Amino acid sequence: MSGRKCRISFRSGRILLFSLIAIVAAVTGCAPYTMQGRVIEGPNSFITVVSADDPRLNAATNDSGLANVQIDVTLDPNEMRPINEGNTYTDLSGNFSMPISAQGAGFLMYEAQITATGSGFAPVQKTMPLPSGNKCILVVLKEGKGKINRKNNLIDETMRMGEPYMQ
To answer: pLDDT digit string (tens) for 140-159?
Structure first.
């Protein structure tokens, strides 16, 4: 019997460490991000980020969920090239789930412009940081009517402002 011990050389240890870091980055960085939330009726219209265990998100304890409300999401709306993530609709309990395709969403910082519109309810729009994976969006809509001022593309807006000077 020899008294040899199993040793990992410095080079092998470094390769092992970098491999482990690459695997962790691939697993967490490439995981799809889904923005989830619920739309309920309330006395005022607003959008906020809440903990995933907020009781207002639970359809069993809060039956004021609103069905068929349209949720639109645009990432980095104030940048020259905003990312339109599209829209989704709430289910019969007012819940919604929307996959966000932007790379690093939920991990990297993105500004998200969230707009909620439903028939017979005052629409609401808010720009805020995209919530992390353990948070949800709570949308409260007030009964009534209203209008959302949608921002246009920065280039289109600049061209429209310059039209009087181009004639």
So the answer is: 999 988 767 665 556 666 77
Q: Which residues contact 44 (CB under 8 A, 6 or more apart)?
A: 140, 142
- Domains of the chain: residue spans and CATH: 31-146 (2.60.40.10)
**Whole-structure pTM value:** 0.70
- Residues 132-136: contacts with CB within 8 Å, 24+ apart? 132/106, 132/107, 133/33, 133/106, 134/51, 134/52, 135/49, 135/50, 135/51, 135/52, 136/36, 136/37, 136/38, 136/49, 136/50, 136/51, 136/52, 136/54, 136/57
Query: Residue 82, Cβ neighbours under 10 Å: how many?
Result: 16
